[in-house]
Write a structure and sequence with these properties.
With 203 residues, the chain is an alpha+beta fold. It has helices at 35-44, 65-72, 153-164, 184-190, 192-198, and strands at 2-7, 15-20, 25-29, 48-53, 75-77, 103-106, 109-115, 124-128, 131-135, 138-139, 142-143, 173-176, 182-183. It has a 6-stranded mixed beta sheet with strand order 6-7-8-9-12-13. It has a 5-stranded mixed beta sheet with strand order 1-2-3-4-5.
Amino acid sequence: MKAYHVVGQAPMYTNTFLLISEAGHGVVIDPAAAAADYGQLLRKEGASLTHIFCTHGHFDHVGSAAELKEEWNAKLWCEAADLEGGQFYPLTQADSGYQEGGVIQVDEMSFTVWHTPGHTPGSVCLLCGEYLFTGDTLFAGSVGRTDLPGGSTRQLSDSLRKLAGLPIPPTAQVLPGHGDLSTFGEELKNNWYIRKSVSRQDW
């Protein structure tokens, strides 16, 4: 497997990621960069895009989803709760949502998915080996906003408590939707929001 960190377009500069299997099948997580950026990498590797995983449906995470799906005939995954077709949630349809705790297999790459609502109703986190894609649920030292439409501080606190109890290796790299990268162990130890959630104290 090869992994690429692709930075989304200004002004949000969303973190997005492209994984390519040994068989040449590509997976984009949060398609916020220009479709051509992913296409250039895929063609360089002689690969084709087969899956698009959205950690949630906010506009700054799904900007090239429709274009990529059409160009590559890739399967698009996003939770129905985030398919509103409005200003914040521009997508109106997806090929599939996610099963709680389910595993999506793409060649040798196994993606385990957990629902983590709070930033949006349909937020998820995905674990693939040592990579934990957290979208806007969990940042390095912080968490996603809950003051936007569909956000819930209580749900996000519950989701952080849930993440802390999952069998996620402490060495797993936290790959968030914005900002710096981290490890899950560092967040369990130092992230104030996780520590408060686990102790069931209000933020």
